[in-house]
Amino acid sequence: MAEARILYIATAEGLVQLANPGKSDRWREIGRALTEQDLRAVVASPNDPLLALAASSAGISRSANGGMSWDLVLAEPIRSLVFDAAATLYASAERGTLLRSADGSDWVAVARLPAPILGWSLLEDGTLIGVSVDGRLYQQIGAEWQARDAQVLEPLAITADPSDPEALLIVGTRSLYTPQGEQPLPAAATGALLMLRGQQPVLLLATHEALLRSDDRGATGAPVEGPTGVTVLVTPPRFIDQVFAGTAQGALWFSADRGRTWAELRAGYPAIHGVAFARAL
Residue 113: CB partners within 8 Å, gap ≥ 6? Predict the structure, then answer.
């Protein structure tokens, strides 16, 4: 039996759900939810194909039935959501509180930070690192969160070189910060940033003018033909060559060759702010 996949798309006007029977060019819409909410993030459990959560200024909404219904489980403005390597959930509230949950139904505060975390990176060794609105880095060490001795200006997103967990890459409004130093960008960044695993890692970074692709960890980058105004870059679990891109114009794009070529899958949605995957047999 072919593996089915569900795609959750967080938009400026709610959640869109797509599904396919195992072929990436056959996505079809199966439902919408949380209408009229400006969603900031969406995540799907790596262990439970029916569990998904979405975040907005209204709080965190949870679905335990594959998106058929959603319940507001936390009424507090949320900036970001993430699963760690053990499938524990973390949420960063607008006022800086860092929250934790085992299954998304009940939340407890685990840290109070000066500013909310806006982007996360789960390293190959299982370490979770976040970058906050004020440019500070926070690292998960056991049950504690510690600030790292680093700070960047106007951060938008963070990722890491899979071959070197200490080699963090952070995109700011006008620069890419790498272990080798600050790299100026040709145009303002949107915040979409992704490092693809593989024998030769590939970095994808979006500006308001183009999507850039780099084979040398951001030292150089060249624009590719395809989507513009990319706000989200996501690779599905277990597929190191595939990439999905969501745009500010509400289009969903797909690449099967590590970002070299692109095809538009869907269009006509509100601005896309997040994408998450769930698998079901």
Answer: 92, 96, 97, 98, 132, 136, 138, 145
Residues 6+ apart with CB under 8 A from 196: 202, 203, 204, 235, 240, 241, 243, 258, 259
Spatial CA neighbour of 130 closest among 111, 187, 122, 207: 122
pLDDT in tens, 10-45: 999 999 999 987 655 678 999 999 999 999 999 999
Does position 166 have pLDDT exceeding 80, yes or no? no
Count of alpha carbons within 13 angstroms of residue 190, beta-carbon side: 28
| pTM score of the predicted model | 0.94
Q: How many residues does the chain have?
A: 281
> b vs e for 241-279, b when ≥16 Cβ sit within 10 Å of the residue's Cβ?
bbbbbbbbbbbbbbbeebbeebeebbeebbbbbbbbbbe
3-state secondary structure of 47: coil
